[in-house]
Design brief:
This protein is of the alpha+beta class. The protein has 2 helices and 5 strands. Strand 4 and strand 5 form a beta hairpin.
């Protein structure tokens, strides 16, 4: 199980304040260790495939592959991430 942050998501993650960025990365690493487990603040998206995890006002949208790898697609502020 691996964590893969796409280049576009890495740029977006760099724009997140340092404390929230570090905590969000920690949460994503926890999810990558056990992608099919129960995680607080992680929910399945409706209408589109994937999941989201939140940290403060910031959200990360990710998918889980058949092999159990976590791929981070998008990171952004809560008012912009779902658009």
């Amino acid at each position: 199980m691996a964590l893969d942050v796409r280049p576009n998501a890495q740029k977006q993650l760099a724009g997140v304040p340092k404390a929230d960025r570090e905590r969000l990365r920690e949460r994503l690493e926890e999810i990558a260790k056990n992608p099919y487990g129960s995680h607080p603040d992680a929910k399945r998206l409706t209408g589109t495939p994937g999941f989201r995890v939140r940290q403060g006002d910031w959200r990360a949208v990710y998918r889980i592959t058949g092999a159990g790898d976590v791929i981070v697609i998008h990171v952004g502020h809560r008012r912009e991430v779902y658009r």
